[in-house]
């Protein structure tokens, strides 16, 4: 399995073991994937008297939301819905019908965090038999679009949306369209041995209390699933590269992109002290905690699963596992390769452009995309742009994500400027003859003492 150095494997084992002992957790299991395959998996503690491994099931809680989001984006990519559609357009009759599908995905719809009634994660789903039962009488706690507010009922609504559009249960659609194509055969709505039992650990004594494993009913799309470290490592690889049988790489990058500082579409964005942002998701249900994170730059991901209600900082441990690999065995870049052919029109666009006095570089890439990046540095990331059929380009990352780049030409066909979401880029800073909004002083550039 592993091509990691022995000292790296020992460091990973040490971090996992320290986490399990300090977190006073009956068992933990972890996996690390790199460049699309699992390179390390190990367990610590015991499940039914045996050390767990990458095939041992744990409940994964809200990592389920990532899989639900994948199904919604599949519907979008098929043209069955738009993310700016109101929920009512496809699932009429709910109290949150004015919320957009994209807002539900990104937790910006303003909905309540939890369904009404007793602690839903420890009570049977039958207590909430109808879709209306997952929303409180006043479902909105903030105006829609005002701010990020995590909402479990929001993902229950997305699950119901999937069922309405597909005409099948959320669970069946998930198995057919995601789990089976990706080979996640040990992931499902119910546990299948070998699996861990959920425990609460007494805060002041080394004793345990069993936690109930309830079927969540209508809330299942927000947190029902059981899975393994091996299966979640597969999901981590998918979150880096996509798989056209399930979801394209462009749509995966859209999932990982920041739609709020905290969240993408079905992915949390865990910001690290060193400035890195690790997309993925955490999960918790009574008796279980879990985290899956990926580092797109290093192409490394990690999973940690534990069977305790509280006390195990799985998000910190998971980020540490990624950091250990990234620091001890940094990624060796792929060989640079030129474009397969040179398009004269595209080549003519390469080089420096200026937004006012700000220098930018436009670079055609070997994969057929463009990159627009600031030459001033400052830590800001450039924008990657994909080609569109009409000759324009759409940003898929960075500041101009979602914006269109259009090449503007004069009557003779010569390029005059670039328009990126109304930002005008010219070949010279404040080009006198360029179409600079507001115009350019006819006297041009001058020294401080000019009169």
Question: What does the model show?
Answer:
The chain has 451 residues and is of the alpha+beta class. The protein contains ten helices and 18 strands. The longest helix has 17 residues, at 6-22. An eight-stranded antiparallel beta sheet has the order 11-12-13-14-15-16-17-18, with no helix packed on it. Strands 2-1-10-9-8-7 form a six-stranded antiparallel beta sheet, with helices on both faces. It has a two-stranded antiparallel sheet with strand order 3-6. Helix 7 (229-241) packs across helix 8 (249-256). It has two domains: 6-328, DD-peptidase/beta-lactamase superfamily (Beta-lactamase, 3-Layer(aba) Sandwich), CATH 3.40.710.10; 344-425.
* CATH homology-level superfamily of the largest domain: DD-peptidase/beta-lactamase superfamily
CATH topology of the largest domain: Beta-lactamase
Number of domains: 2
Low-pLDDT runs of 5+ residues are: none
Look at the structure and give the mean pLDDT. 94
- Broad shape: globular
Reading off the top of the CATH hierarchy, the class of the largest domain is best stated as Alpha Beta
Number of helices: 10
What is the β-strand count? 18
Proportion of strand residues: 15-25%
| Order of helical and strand elements | HEEEHHHHEEHEHHEEEEHHEEEEEEEE
What gyration radius follows from the Cα positions, in whole Å? 25 Å
Helix-strand makeup class: alpha+beta
- The CATH architecture of the largest domain can be given as 3-Layer(aba) Sandwich
Strand order of the largest sheet: 11-12-13-14-15-16-17-18
Q: CA-to-CA gap between the ends?
A: 73 Å
Q: How many strands, which pairing sense, and closed or not: the largest β-sheet? A: 8 strands, antiparallel
Helix content: 10-25%
Domain Beta-lactamase-related: 18-326
Domain DUF7586: 343-427
Protein name: CubicO group peptidase (Beta-lactamase class C family)
InterPro entries: AmpC-like (IPR050491), Beta-lactam-related (IPR001466), Beta-lactam/transpept-like (IPR012338), DUF7586 (IPR056008)
